[in-house]
């Protein structure tokens, strides 16, 4: 018994002797809350995949910090043919993959073709445009020929889905590409991945072809560890105690206190495009009435939601799209109704929506009552509950059905609901509108069932126009039309904050496709 | 002895089959479509249907289960439908850390629980008895996640004594020991209470027995009486409880692994179930159920050693 006791005391004392250690020097530990299912840029659309893919691989083009300007990436420059159908990309001649092989035009042709190949089954291959053919003219020249002009192409090619990858590695690893290995031209090289644990990457020696938006063309740390910590309390404690260096996964409630923490540095991206919105199924009773939809837009207190649910880490959405995004129409912002519940009541009264005995309005025998589908996460739950209360005050009954993320996408593909809550990233007005509103995109992602010939025509004009002014006007027409029809209630614009520890310098929030660190360049870590 | 072992092993086979069947059916009941998960947002219905066919999810449930069992008998646990990794490979990578965590929790909590229970029994009715019982009730009542968060806050964050994210390495390395300490302390704390309470009750029963009175009458000191004559006889119900509690400890490990980002089977199970990764979830269920069965078998065998009457 005495020996047992002694043994116990020794074991209990052992950990106390050890002192907690921070992350090793010259290694950047990035903390995040979720992992991706794989890291093949052509097969995954997850933000978690993009975070890693941007560091492991490069794209032909890149996007500047203003999130509007397209700048060179692997392509030094590009030209467009007079008919707008052929883009000619001049590639850098000093780029190598992580295995040392030189990147050529053949690799670009292979990577894009692989992305758009139906066998790859990329749900976002439309982003590559209406491709007719890609040709490697010479080792540093690629002709990207389209069946019709696609003005969005340079933007879309900056997204991680269009990453240039090594054919040999893809063919060798097959379905395990991006799972057991990866060979790209990015600033870091794949080292190892433990799903739901650590993804480790090491510096790509010789890399100096970073997009011109960075001060240093080469990575400043020798190793990056992407560490998954699902519990947000543990993640924040890890960041503040130096067991992690940087994260963008900051719980909204903690943002203000982190700003006051002198041991942390916070970087914000003001041009961040990730919005929450409510979409109405415009052909479904009772939300097929534009007057009712407009009254609902007027009834929802978006500023209140931004404050109460996002704790100030979100901005109330006062227009269909973010005013900072490329091709935003200022007039649509003026057309967007503000918070005016009394005005909403008057509008409903004037249009025959009379209050019933239970307080819910009705018109022609139909009650102002419908079901909303959404994701069962704390943010969505609180947003929808706040909305439910707001709408009830003007006599509209909102029935909520929130689903786990693994179920929600399937449910949102049905026609069983009147409205839905969603959040999404976008890079331009054309990107957002061409995803959600073409009639050909029904039932998903056009879950609103919006089917309008004029919209289709304007969107086609915007996609195919060779004239920037004409494209801007076409997109403005769509924004005004959709705002007038109150197809969405734009709710809140999420803010992007990057929190980094004291030993980390140079971490700046970018935000392309929701990715905070982008290439991870300019970041240094001390001891 | 050998016959007894074989009998217990044979009984384990239908139990394992039942676990697999129930686990499989539960995954079918969940209204999630893994094909939708894999296809991602904004995927077309055609793409989802293609993926469903590729994964064999369009076949009848009975056929899917039969195919699974057939593969299992050949030692093939399948591949993850989410990331295409071999299930056996993932399990191989995660069993070690989970066993480390279990070992780290048990190696101190069982001796401490037995010690405190014995101490309380020997000092029945005195302040130390009440203190031990109060502490054990608290240990039973406080949820694992709360204990974990409190330890992270104070030991890891405020005092910066120990790391609390992930696994630093194998248990025999300093880094491994450092990262194991807090999760093992968390998991072990919920184990001490029940063991202490059961030990106290069992020792109190034995302390009143004739053979203990005889030992005292022969002039033996209190320490040898308790250690040799009372505690050994009191261990049978304690071992039974430990066996059962280890099963529950596996459940606690799931929570502990999530809080401390510990790369074990529990965390793998949670991820697999949440993403509706059928093969991976089935694999983790198989391992966890197998662990439960093995522990119970070990407890049965330990009876033979501790209590000669069982052998008769």
Highest-level CATH class of the largest domain in chain B: Mainly Alpha
Return the CATH architecture of the domain at 275-494 in chain A.
Roll
- Classify the beta-strand content of chain B into a percent band: under 5%
Number of domains of chain B: 2
Largest interface: A-B, 57 and 62 residues
What is the structural class of chain B? mainly alpha
Q: Can you name the CATH architecture of the largest domain in chain B?
A: Orthogonal Bundle
Number of helices of chain B: 13
Multimer state: heterodimer
Secondary-structure-derived class of chain A: alpha+beta
Question: At the third CATH level, what is the topology name of the domain at 275-494 in chain A?
Answer: Dipeptide-binding Protein, domain 3
Question: Low-confidence spans of chain A: pLDDT under 50, at least 5 residues?
Answer: 1-20
What average pLDDT do the residues of chain A reach? 92
Q: Report the portion of residues of chain A in β strands.
A: 15-25%
The CATH topology of the largest domain in chain B is MetI-like fold
Q: Give the fraction of residues assigned to helices of chain A.
A: 25-40%
Radius of gyration of chain B: 24 Å
Overview of this protein structure:
- The complex is a heterodimer of chains A (527) and B (312).
- Chain A has helices spanning 2-17, 47-56, 105-116, 153-156, 167-173, 232-240, 255-259, 290-299, 302-308, 330-335, 341-350, 378-393, 405-411, 429-436, 453-464, 468-485; strands at residues 27-32, 61-63, 70-72, 75-80, 86-91, 131-138, 141-146, 188-193, 198-203, 223-228, 246-247, 264-269, 274-280, 314-316, 354-355, 361-363, 366-367, 369-375, 397-403, 419-425, 488-494, 496-501, 504-505, 524-525.
- With 527 residues, chain A is α+β, with helices and mostly antiparallel strands.
- In chain A, helix 8 (290-299) packs antiparallel against helix 11.
- The model of chain A is unreliable at 1-20 (pLDDT under 50).
- Chain B is mainly alpha-helical and 312 residues long.
- Chain B has 2 domains: 2-73, no CATH class; 91-311, MetI-like (MetI-like fold).
- Helix content of chain B is 79%, strand content 0%.
- Chain B is built from 13 helices and no strands.
- Chain B is globular, with a radius of gyration of 24 Å.
- At the A-B interface, helix 1, helix 6 and helix 13 of A face helix 2, helix 3, helix 5, helix 7 and helix 8 of B.
């Amino acid at each position: 018994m005495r020996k047992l006791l002694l043994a116990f005391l020794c074991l209990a004392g052992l950990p106390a002797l050890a002192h907690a250690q921070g992350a090793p020097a010259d290694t950047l530990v990035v903390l995040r809350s979720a992992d991706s299912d794989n890291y093949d840029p052509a097969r995954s659309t997850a933000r978690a995949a993009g975070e890693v893919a941007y560091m492991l691989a490069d794209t032909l083009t890149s996007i500047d910090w203003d999130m509007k300007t397209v700048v060179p990436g692997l392509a030094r420059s590009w030209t467009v043919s007079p008919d707008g159908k052929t883009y000619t990309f001049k590639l850098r001649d000093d780029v190598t993959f992580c295995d040392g092989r030189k990147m050529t035009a053949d690799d670009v042709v292979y990577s894009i073709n692989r992305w758009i190949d139906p066998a790859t089954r990329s749900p976002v291959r439309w982003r590559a445009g209406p491709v007719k053919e890609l040709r490697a003219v010479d080792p540093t020249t690629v002709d990207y020929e389209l069946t019709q002009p696609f003005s969005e192409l340079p933007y879309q090619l900056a997204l991680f889905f269009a990453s240039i990858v090594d054919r040999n590695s893809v063919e060798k690893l097959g379905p395990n590409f991006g799972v057991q290995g990866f060979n790209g031209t990015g600033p870091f090289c794949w080292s190892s991945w433990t799903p739901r644990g650590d993804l480790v990457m090491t510096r790509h020696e010789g890399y100096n072809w970073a997009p011109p938006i960075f001060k240093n063309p080469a990575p400043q740390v020798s190793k990056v560890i992407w560490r998954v910590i699902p519990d947000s309390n543990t993640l924040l404690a890890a960041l503040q105690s130096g067991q992690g260096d940087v994260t963008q996964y900051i719980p909204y409630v903690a943002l203000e206190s982190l700003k006051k923490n002198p041991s942390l540095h916070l970087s914000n991206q003001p041009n961040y495009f990730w919005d929450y919105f409510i979409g109405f199924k415009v052909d479904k009773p009772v939300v097929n009435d534009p007057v009712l939809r407009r009254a609902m837009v007027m009834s929802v207190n978006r500023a209140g939601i931004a404050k109460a649910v996002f704790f100030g880490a979100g901005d109330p959405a006062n227009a269909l799209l973010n005013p900072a995004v490329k091709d935003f129409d200022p007039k649509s912002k003026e057309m967007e109704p503000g918070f005016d519940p009394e005005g909403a009541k008057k509008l409903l009264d004037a249009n025959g929506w009379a209050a019933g005995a239970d307080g819910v309005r009705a018109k022609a025998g139909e009650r102002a009552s419908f079901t909303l589908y959404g994701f069962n996460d704390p943010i969505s739950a609180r947003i929808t509950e706040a909305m439910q209360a707001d709408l009830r005050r003007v006599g509209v009954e909102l029935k909520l059905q929130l689903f786990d993320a693994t179920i929600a996408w399937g449910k949102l593909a049905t026609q069983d609901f009147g409205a839905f809550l969603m959040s999404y990233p976008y890079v331009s007005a054309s990107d957002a509108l061409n995803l959600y509103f073409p009639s050909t995109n029904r039932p998903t992602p056009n879950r609103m069932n919006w089917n309008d010939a004029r919209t289709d025509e304007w969107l086609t004009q915007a996609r195919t126009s060779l004239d920037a002014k004409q494209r801007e006007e076409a997109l403005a027409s769509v924004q005004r039309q959709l705002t007038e029809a109150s197809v969405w209630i734009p709710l809140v614009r999420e803010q992007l904050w990057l929190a980094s520890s004291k030993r980390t310098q140079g971490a700046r929030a970018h935000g392309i496709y929701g990715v905070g660190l982008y290439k991870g360049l300019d970041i240094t870590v001390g001891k | 002895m050998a016959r007894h072992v074989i009998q217990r092993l044979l009984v384990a086979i239908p139990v394992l089959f039942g676990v697999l069947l129930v686990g499989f059916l539960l995954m079918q009941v969940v209204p999630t479509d893994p094909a939708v998960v894999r296809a991602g947002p904004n995927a077309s219905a055609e793409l989802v249907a293609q993926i469903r066919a590729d994964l064999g999810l369009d076949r009848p449930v009975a056929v899917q289960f039969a195919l699974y069992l057939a593969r299992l008998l050949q030692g093939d646990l399948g591949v993850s439908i989410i990331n295409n990794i071999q299930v056996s490979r993932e399990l191989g990578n995660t069993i070690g850390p989970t066993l480390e965590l279990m070992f780290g929790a048990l190696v101190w909590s069982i001796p401490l629980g037995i010690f405190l229970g014995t101490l309380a029994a020997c000092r029945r009715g005195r302040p130390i008895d009440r203190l031990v019982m109060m502490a054990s009730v608290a240990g039973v009542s406080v949820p694992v996640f709360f204990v974990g968060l409190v330890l992270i806050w104070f030991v890891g964050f405020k005092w910066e004594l120990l790391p609390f994210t992930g696994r630093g390495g194998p248990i025999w390395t300093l880094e491994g020991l450092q990262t194991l300490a807090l999760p093992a302390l968390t998991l072990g704390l919920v184990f001490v209470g029940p063991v202490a309470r059961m030990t106290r009750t069992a020792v109190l029963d034995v302390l009143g027995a004739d053979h203990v009175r005889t030992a005292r009458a022969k002039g033996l000191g209190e320490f040898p009486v308790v250690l040799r004559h009372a505690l050994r006889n009191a261990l049978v119900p304690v071992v039974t409880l430990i066996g059962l509690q280890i099963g529950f400890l596996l459940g606690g490990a799931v929570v502990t692994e999530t809080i401390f980002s510990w790369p074990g089977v529990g965390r793998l199970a949670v991820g697999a179930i949440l993403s509706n990764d059928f093969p991976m979830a089935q694999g983790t269920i198989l391992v966890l159920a197998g662990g439960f069965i093995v522990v119970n078998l070990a407890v049965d065998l330990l009876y033979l050693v501790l209590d000669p009457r069982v052998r008769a």
